[in-house]
Amino acid sequence: MEAGSNFPNNGGSLHLAENFKAAWNQNHLHLIIMPTEKCNFRCVYCYEDFKIGKMKPAVLAGVKNLLRTRVPTIKSLEINWFGGEPTVALDTVLEVMETAKSVCREHNVYLRAGMTTNGFLLTADAYRALVDHYVVDYQISLDGPAEFHDTTRLQANGKGSFEQIMANLDAIYRLPIEAGEILLRLHLTRKNEYVLNDFAQWLEIRYGQDKRFRFTLQPVENLGGDADLSELVLENQERGWGENSHPVPSDEETSGMERKHDESYVCYAAKANSFVLRADGRVGKCTVALNNDYNTIGELKQDGSLSLDEAKTARWFRGWSTQNQADLACPAASVFL
Questions:
Q1: 285: number of CA atoms within 13 Å, CB side?
Q2: Percent of the chain with pLDDT over 70
């Protein structure tokens, strides 16, 4: 993981104060929920092991009871759906969101939700149902045109996925829905670096007239797992990409989805009001270091209470005492190193 520098003197203290206030704001709750840790894809660079299946009834009850307990005490709720692949457990997502809608409406609490999805099962009907349940923001990864994408973002059966994802995006594009955004995350690799700019322009022509669609560029990283990624990962961002060489996301922050981070960025894992709820009921802070013991900070009980290990939890907030940008931007580095 990359090291960072301390906050700059010019404006650094102001950024730190604002970020601290947001990270410890008890009127806001951010939940990253994994309704299943199984996936219908086997992307070659994925770090997950897919050992945990769909959320069991007791855990599902715990999630809904947590919402019933906490929502009356807050002013805003943000839910990000993660996996595995969350659309594999679409019924669980909709059931939880129905509870969230109801309790937030009852207590006049602002609700917004998003989803990181491979897009393969995100049909027009699924998208419409999710938007009706306040899941309005999406992040979908594409690894370039079909001839590149279909060699890295494979289905579990070994087949490609590009054609179905594009069919779904086209169908969503035709829907008269204006809510939220669909962030297309374009993965840059050694293999596709020379075609990705043309691909980005092709996407811009195809979807650029729809204000829901936005784009960001992200080099593929080695985040763990057993695969040899030397043929894909660009070392130290070998290629320079200027502002006119790739699509740049809007500066407007409309969700908790990933953006091109500035020097004051604070990871969700460093925030005291953010938790990862895993499909087996474990509570974590980070969606990458899933198999590290220090990432399991507690357990979600069926009654909706969180039983947390205070010592483990506190380690994730180290950056607030060091005031080091590296510790705040990626607290996992300081926790596990």
A1: 29
A2: 87
DSSP 174-223: TS---SSEEEEEEEE-TTTTTTHHHHHHHHHHHHTTSTTEEEEEEE----
The confidence score (pLDDT) of residue 5 equals 27
Mean pLDDT for all residues in the chain = 88
Look at residues 62, 211, 39 and name the one whose alpha carbon lies nearest to residue 117. Answer: 39
Give helix then strand counts, H and E, for the chain: 11, 10
Give the span between the Cα atoms of 30 and 26, in whole angstroms.
Answer: 10
- Phi, psi of 245, deg, nearest 5: -100, -15
pTM for the complete prediction? 0.89
Query: CB-based burial of residue 87 (10 Å sphere; 0-12 exposed, 13-18 middle, 19+ buried)?
Result: buried
Distance CA 337, CA 330 (A): 12
Among candidates 262, 259, 337, which has minimal Cα distance to 7?
262
Token pair for residue 109?
A: 């609490």
Which amino acid would we find at residue 254? Answer: T
Helix or strand (DSSP H, E) at 13: helix 12-23
Burial class (CB in 10 A: 0-12, 13-18, 19+), 47: middle
